[in-house]
Fold each of these.
Amino acid sequence: MKLNQIIKSVFATTALLSSAAAVHAAEVEVLHYWTSGGEAKSVAELKKIMEAKGVTWKDFAVAGGAGENATTALKARVIAGSPPTAAQIKGPSIQEWGQEGVLANIDAAATAGKWDSLLPKVVSNTMKYQGHYVAAPVNVHRVNWLWINPEVLKKAGAKVPTTWPEFFDAADKIQKAGFIAVAQGGQPWQDATVFETVALGVGGADFYNKALVKLDPATLTGPTMIKTFDTLGKIKGYIDKDAPGRDWNLATAMVINGKAGMQFMGDWAKGEFTAAGKQPGKDFLCAPAPGTAKSYTYNIDSIAMFKVKNPDSQKAQLTLATAIMSPEFQEVFNLNKGSIPVRPDIPRTKFDSCAIESMDDMAASSKAGTLEPSMAHGMAVSSAVQGAMFDVVSKFMHSNMTSQAAAQALAKAAKTQ
């Protein structure tokens, strides 16, 4: 996101207009892109909690799995001088919006809730701009999962893969048995999700960090990156021809319904399985993607607060931030969405085996130094660099681009300002 510099001046000159706009007392307008089955169910719970506290919830849902449409809508609102009370923003984008001077300080809620002592440092640092909390963390998603239909696996005579040779063996067997081996939606962010997972599995956490977090030119163009693209190119052969443009949850539905055997996707996919009444370990399997069992790529959803003039809206923002971090919401939201709570003190009793594995693996990866931010999900690099990388990966996925050319193009994309 490279915001137009006129935002500052427009925001300043129209702030009075926005404060005079029709804002009801104790109302929050929340812009988000949680629109699939499991996600919508989760948002409904937050709405309930807010309304129980006497705050009216004004829903501003913008469909689009990775939030590109929501970001466009948010930019338009901020430029017009009428930002929503809160919006779903994450990672480096929080810093970018903070630099524009449009985010609200919610330290009061954080201090009262003892967020600094509750949250892992990797989470709290992401929620702050210049040392002050401006966003409330909702959850932690693990991105490097492989979702599997065990019935399809059984019919194909395949086993759960832990290495890339095992993965391609399973994919071959699934395809020969008449199923789609890999359910995928040919959208830029989905292609990038598979790409970064393959990079982690092929090169390990240190390689991933040098290439997709630190953007080291030598690593981006080196032999391990070429091997990453070679592996990604091989995966292409197991994706069906109808994949372009398919939404992620429709790809997940293919695994749920037994049309496809496997899907690379973050654990928000689990929300779709559970919303369909499926049980982990029985109706579906979650496994770390091949080669990534000892690493963890994370995506933290968060709600950032925007500067508003109405005192009631300001109070409602603190109420919203407090509600998001409440044990009640952390539990119910994450049970619905498939993610894990940001608070480590939430009881595990209601969480399934996939969530518990995610909690344990996150803790182990954090200790081992293999906990990495997701490039594909806005946690690792600026939105400008991310967008340029998306373009390279998408071109590779949907053309005859060579691995060497893709690696060179990726290094060039990393220099995007």
Note: The first strand starts at residue 27 and ends at 32.
Amino acid sequence: MSPSITSRTGNSRLGVSLRNLLPEAKFIGARDILARACCARPEHILPGEVFVAICEDSEDGHDQVEDAIERGAAAVVSEKPLPVSVPVCVVSDSREAYGQLCHALADQPTNRIKVIGVTGTNGKTTTCLLIKAILQKAGAKVGSLTSLGFDNGYDEQSWSHPTPNPAIMADMLSRMQYNGCTHAVIEASSEGLVKQHLAGVQLDVAAFTNIRQNHIELHGSARNYYRAKKKLLKYLRETGVAIFNGDDSNCVRLLNKAEVPSLSVAMHGVGEITATIIERHKSEQTFLLTAGNQSVPVCTRMIGDHHVYNCLTAAAVCLVYGVDLKTVVRGLESVEALPGRMQRIECGQSFGVFIDQAHTHDGLAVALKTLRRVTPGRLICVLGAHETSDRINRPLLGRVAERGSDVSLITLSSTHSRTNSEVVHDIVDGFGRPAKAHVIPNRTEAIRYAFSQAETGDTVVITGQTTERLVSDCIEKTDPRDCDVARELLYEMVHEQEEVETEAKVIAFPR
């Protein structure tokens, strides 16, 4: 099944009463509507289905109602009365109604499975997978929906959509429940929250990793972005718990206003679950995890303060479910690497190489700060530029790269990217001294040049490749993942060095 091509759901033989499901709705042309399936795309409608009119970014579903009826729609859910030949259910928010209907048709899977939602600017995916690892160590069967892919308890598939639409969400959760999953972990993006993709979901735990300035072009302002993240709380059950980052100002602001049971995590401030760094190297770090009057050391292969925060959030979530601290540590330590998340590449080279998806200025700053702490030599940054980045964010990327690294190489986001020069220029505009920005359009050549400049004690960080290319095994051979390119180039370098060292030398003796 491909999770990206359907917007339909329905498996209830008896059907769902819209009057019972949506008591505030008004009905035109009927006292009630019995839905056995629904769809939000007119081109996908089958005879007898309910069409839900949703306003998208580029089109209004209300303008497509007649098309849906011609294709066989038996009824319509809309946000306004419509002069049509089939019954109409008028609601205040058709996105919310669509989600409610999708989950009702899937027989409310979140009533039979424990669900955790994770949102934030950075760390969502890693935190989700840390939660999953801990719960699995505790004996639970866990499904997941993240930007790295989905796991329904039976099979896994890579994809690049962190928060699927309600039809896919309901279907995936239903499959998890059918396959015996006891828990599900969902990554909630700001866009998905704005578009009500979690409508119909009931969460046991809502976790906030951090709320920084991001996606301003998408949301219009930092205030709107904050409001988008805040929407996760509306999906909490009455018995649900919220987890906040006590060192993040926006999370603290949300914590102070939240009217739900809450826990906070912190490294520097006050929190119920805290951490203290003991030691850190390029290959691992150790910190002391404290919950209540218990403290235990945790050694992780992934490094950086941001990863400690992810571990704290995951630990807090699992402690809510009653998982003991020793099991929490085992779960945290079992996650040794994730694609594009401070991913270390080791091929026998004398310098450090890391791949990080950092495509925002905040994410790049975190990556550079983390590596600076464990780099005795120079820090070389290969910065990928792609057209999907916010224009407001591009100069900030350049500013962070210049200040945080010793050598900055600006390249395209993929080997065959057609990013126009405007994107590169926007990034260079952020440099105080533009001459320090080295532009190498070919991504492979940029990585090769970075490796050629690196010496013992230096670190090269390769950033900016899209999540889809980082995780997909089905990309074109001519457009490989950064990790594959890096390994190939590093092995070439190591092989060349070995050949030079093993060349036979003729020593001339004096006669």
Note: Confidence is low (pLDDT under 50) at residues 1-6, 473-478.
